[in-house]
UniProtKB/TrEMBL annotation:
<dbReference type="InterPro" id="IPR002110">
    <property type="entry name" value="Ankyrin_rpt"/>
</dbReference>
<keyword id="KW-0040">ANK repeat</keyword>
<protein>
    <submittedName>
        <fullName>Ankyrin repeat-containing protein P16F5.05c isoform X2</fullName>
    </submittedName>
</protein>
<keyword id="KW-0677">Repeat</keyword>
<feature type="repeat" description="ANK">
    <location>
        <begin position="41"/>
        <end position="73"/>
    </location>
</feature>
<dbReference type="InterPro" id="IPR036770">
    <property type="entry name" value="Ankyrin_rpt-contain_sf"/>
</dbReference>
<dbReference type="Pfam" id="PF12796">
    <property type="entry name" value="Ank_2"/>
</dbReference>
<feature type="repeat" description="ANK">
    <location>
        <begin position="74"/>
        <end position="106"/>
    </location>
</feature>
């Protein structure tokens, strides 16, 4: 891959992040159809969508197999961002889809720690309720 190809790829990844940040599902799907990797290490699309509470983008990226526990440079996972910014439905979706509640970011804080630090009581309640719901479903299945 030449330098020009690298620039084009970087621009497309930037476009992907913009689509995730601004809740543009059509642009996101178009970029994915053009071959932009949703799962590349460079792509933080799920982080952007989770941080901004864009459920449609979050659901689409999860359906496409994006690593739900991928870490960014600060070791934040998408769940850290959703908790910090108070996006209840996104938090529930991430947990139900397998997001880890025990990942530590660079500051040794879990997603729950971020919710507590930001005084997001509705997030703390959502985490506890969702985990309890999952435990009940697992218990009744065995």
């Amino acid at each position: 891959m030449g330098a020009a190809d690298t620039i084009v790829v970087a621009e497309k990844i930037e476009d992907l992040l913009e689509a995730a940040r601004y809740d543009d599902i059509d642009d996101l799907k178009s970029l994915a159809a053009d071959g932009v990797s949703l799962t590349s290490r460079d792509s933080q699309a799920l982080h952007m969508a989770a941080a901004n509470g864009h459920m449609t983008i979050v659901e689409y990226l999860i359906s496409q197999g994006v690593d739900i526990n991928a870490l960014n440079d600060e070791n934040n996972a998408p769940l850290h961002w959703a908790c910090l910014n108070g996006h209840v439905e996104v938090v529930k979706k991430l947990i139900l889809s397998g997001a880890s509640l025990s990942l530590l970011n660079r500051y040794e804080r879990t997603p729950m720690d971020e919710a507590i630090g930001a005084q997001k009581m509705e997030i703390i309640d959502a985490i506890n309720t969702t985990v309890a719901q999952m435990e009940l479903e697992n218990t009744s299945m065995t």
